[in-house]
Amino acid sequence: MNPQDILRYVDSLHRDKNIDTELLFQAIESALQSAARKQYGEESDVLVAIDRENGRISATLEGEPLGDDQIGRIGAQTAKQVIIQKVREAERDALMIEYRDQIGEIVSGMIGRADGGVATVNLGNVEAILPRSEQIPGESLHANERVRAIVYEVRPSGGNRVRVVLSRTRPQFVQQLFEQEIPELTDGVIAIKSISREPGYRSKVAVSSEDQQIDPISVCVGYRGSRIKAVREELAGEHIDVVRYDSDPEILIPNALQPAEVDQVLLCDMIGRAIVLVKEDQLSLAIGRRGQNVRLASKLCGWDIEIMTGGELEEQIERAVGGFSQIPGITEEIAQSLVEQGYLSYDDLSVIEPDQFMEMSGLTEEQVDQVVEIAERNAEDAERAAAEERRVRRDKEKLDRDRAEIESKLEPAAPSETTESEAADAEVSAEAAVEEAAEEVSEESGEPVAAVESEESAEAEVPAADAESPSVDEGVVAEAEPEQGDAESNEEIVAEKDSNGNV
Question: DSSP for 211-245?
């Protein structure tokens, strides 16, 4: 191999593939050694070295140097294949190092495909994937759109390929967006101490400032909310609560539960629980919709927060003291001490540390084991009872829903039946009225009237009856007399026709 060609080859790969030159020289040396062993024997001791300055190749066989003609006889095709393989491995290793250093940092790329929920993102030198589980719920990604995400995982995949997994749901993504929009974070003027997040719904960010004259919340929100608005737009409209951080949990926990107002915080250090007392009208606000507010506050502060009113706490204390006192070996004083440390149920007592329990109660190890065993058994019984209660409640709710659905289906049918019956009654009444009118006409005229078959015939008979009625004015009757004469002449004509046999 020409030394100058080797140098040009290494320099080209270094610039195009961003591979370290030392890795390339080592790959070429390894390829030439493999090719030499195939020529001189697999067990032969062959060493190949390349001068980094001038590209000259030197080799030894069993400690003896090889001449240029011997080195030249090394299989060029075999060396070429091995060099290509080593270069690919070096390229993969370089990508692995590059993206592993970027884990937790934001990268930007163009979406190539977004089929089946999984999106592929072109980052330039590698094609990353954005799984559906790492996408913000409710957002829709389309091809040829630019997207930002953090590098979540990097691992080799299928030979010389690198698999880069991106994420938009991790709390680190929110922190990186804050650092891009708020230069004071990069400068160290303010700092993000903790983040808790439920992607697509709400995030809580605890911030602090070393300078007491700087309000970290106002810095993060920006003028008229411009900074926080830019972060929300990238998070598909996710709500963000920025709270002030404090090293004292009794101050931090009320801040994290905002906008609810907290009356008192009781810390139980042994089990890491914080009992937060609120007024009745603040209870639902502190818990949040489906418990979201208290969950995020617990993650933000690192405490197991339990929200209750003063009355509920007194009931739980009374129930816990009474229940613990029934366990053999536990006196009322020990039960009271357990409650003061935050143990309010059999489930809490079943996970107590034996050493701490022995130190606090003065019981022996055997007695402590017995107490824990009884507490575990009672906790299981309580869990089964609670599960049965939930099942009964679900069945009752389902039964109520079914009953309401059946009633809603039956309600429209009642008016239709009433309307049909009313229509039938109206029709019968109309027919009776027509028959009665016909009978009155028959009595006044002295002539029999045929049975009326329809309402039209009844209406036709009514005017004739009115014409012969005695109540009609005399003038009207006088005017009607010529018509009666005409009727008599008509009857004579008919009679004559009948005598002649013409009908």
Answer: STTS-HHHHHH-GGGHHHHHHHHHTTT-EEEEEE-
Tell me the one-letter amino acid at 119. A
Rounded Cα distance between 212 and 218, Å, is 13
Continuous segment of H or E residues that includes residue 119: strand 118-122
**Which residue pairs, CB below 8 angstroms and at least 24 apart, start in 454-461?**
455/430, 458/434, 461/437
Residue written as token pair 């109540």? 471
Q: Where are the beta strands (DSSP E) in 395-468?
A: none
The pair of structure tokens assigned to 159 is 């030979």
H-assigned helices in 122-193: 171-181, 183-187
pLDDT tens for each residue of 307-317: 999 998 888 88
User: What's the rounded Cα separation, in Å, for the pair 326 and 236?
Assistant: 54
Q: How many Å apart are CA 340 and CA 343, to the nearest integer?
A: 7
Tens digits of residue pLDDT in 284-311: 999 999 899 999 999 999 999 999 999 9
pLDDT of residue 71: 62
Helix intervals (H) in 240-351: 249-256, 283-287, 292-301, 310-325, 332-340, 346-350
From 266, 270, 262, 274, select the one nearest 299 (Cα to Cα).
274
CA distance 329 to 315: 23
For the segment 249-262, the average pLDDT, to the nearest whole number, is 93
At 262, the amino acid letter reads: V
In 3D space, the residue among 156, 92, 159, 165 whose CA is nearest the CA of residue 123 turns out to be 165
Place of tokens 């080593």: 86
Q: Helix, strand or coil for residue 264? A: strand
Chain Cα centroid distance, residue 467: 85
Taking residues 410-414, report their average pLDDT: 59
Residue scoring higher pLDDT (219 or 161) = 219
DSSP string, 333-390: HHHHHHHHTT--SHHHHHT--HHHHHHHH---HHHHHHHHHHHHHHHHHHHHHHHHHH
CA-to-CA distance for 435 and 432, rounded, in angstroms?
5
- pLDDT of 307-356, one tens digit each? 999 998 888 888 888 888 888 888 888 888 888 888 888 888 877 888 88
What lies within 8 Å, CB to CB, of 436 at 6+ separation is none
Task: Count CB neighbours of 313 within 10 A.
Answer: 17
Lowest mean pLDDT among 36-40, 166-170, 242-246: 36-40
Provide the β-strand partners of residue 209. Answer: 190
Phi, psi of 36 (to 5 degrees): -65, -40
Averaged over 454-465, what is the pLDDT? 40
Greatest CA separation for the chain: 162
